[in-house]
Amino acid sequence: MKVSLFAVAALWVGTALAQSPEAPPGGPPGGHHESAAQRMDHLATLLDLTADQKTQVQAVLDEEHAKMKAAHDQAESSGTKPTFEQMKAAHEQMQQDTLAKLKPILTADQLKKFQVLMAERGPPGRPH
């Protein structure tokens, strides 16, 4: 059960991190979605990342995304569904793990901005 909870929460965190925080709820006009590269470019602009930081942040987010996908796949195959409270707790844990990995990469100001962007995404289950 804990793994499936982690999986669902992890997917939400990954989605939150990978998506542009200012994307309209229905997606961009015309139905086209931003590519992962466009989302990363937007994040890099918002955080004013150097080229080296951008590469390192992308690696952290890719690693987290891979973990989330693996956990989601396992949860889906087991057929279990976590409660909202369990998903929220796992979401918060994933955010803390991501922040811990980004702390040595980002400046204090960049880390604060990143935290604000994560907070703007809100808890899992809330429309973005």
Comma- or semicolon-separated keywords:
128 residues, mainly alpha, 70% helix, disordered N terminus
Radius of gyration: 15 Å
Question: What's the helical proportion of residues?
Answer: over 70%
Low-confidence stretches: 1-13, 15-31
Q: What is the number of domains?
A: 1
Explain what you see:
The structure is a single chain. This protein is mainly α. The protein has one domain. Helix content is 70%, strand content 0%. It contains five helices and no strands. Helix 1 packs across helix 4 and helix 3 packs antiparallel against helix 4. The radius of gyration is 15 Å and the shape is globular. It starts with a helix and ends in a 7-residue tail after the last helix.
Compact overview of the structure:
By secondary structure, the protein is mostly helical.
What layout of secondary structure does this protein have?
Blueprint: H1 2-18, H2 36-47, H3 51-78, H4 84-102, H5 108-121
